[in-house]
Amino acid sequence: MTKIERGGNTIVLEHYPVAKLPADLQKEIGDADEVKLTIETPVPHRPRPSLEGIFARVDEMRSDGTIKPVTAEAAVARIRALRDEWDT
């Protein structure tokens, strides 16, 4: 029985029948009846955003209301309220 493990961009098939593989791979494997087959797909490379791009996005989010300005006092009060919830 073939056991399948999946993780991220990888699939591992244990005890995979050699007979199901393409002929060119079967030839390379030789006399084995089963193999452990690992399939990995490439992870697409995403370029890192520039600092200017990050700051531009933050400015955009502030202007459209996604990010709302908060004073230090309001932030501290909010954190204390959350902490107090956990303490009770």
Molecular structure report:
There is one protein chain. The two termini are 52 Å apart. The chain has a three-stranded antiparallel beta sheet with strand order 1-2-3, with no helix packed on it. The chain is 41% helix and 23% strand. The radius of gyration is 27 Å and the shape is elongated. It has 88 residues and is α+β, with helices and mostly antiparallel strands. The chain has two domains: 3-40, no CATH class; 51-87, no CATH class.
Write the layout of secondary structure elements.
Layout: E1 3-7, E2 10-17, H1 23-29, E3 34-40, H2 51-63, H3 72-87
Antiparallel strand pairs: 1-2, 2-3
- What is the element string, with H for helices and E for strands? EEHEHH
Envelope shape: elongated
Whole-angstrom Rg? 27 Å
Placed side by side, the strands forming the largest sheet appear as 1-2-3
Report on the biggest sheet: 3 strands, antiparallel
In whole angstroms, the N-to-C terminal distance is 52 Å
Overall tally of domains = 2
Please give the share of residues in helix: 40-55%
Low-confidence stretches: none
What is the mean predicted local confidence, pLDDT?
Answer: 89
- Please work out how many helical segments DSSP would assign: 3
Question: Based on helices, strands and strand pairing, what is the structural class?
Answer: alpha+beta
- Total strand count, please? 3
Strand content: 15-25%
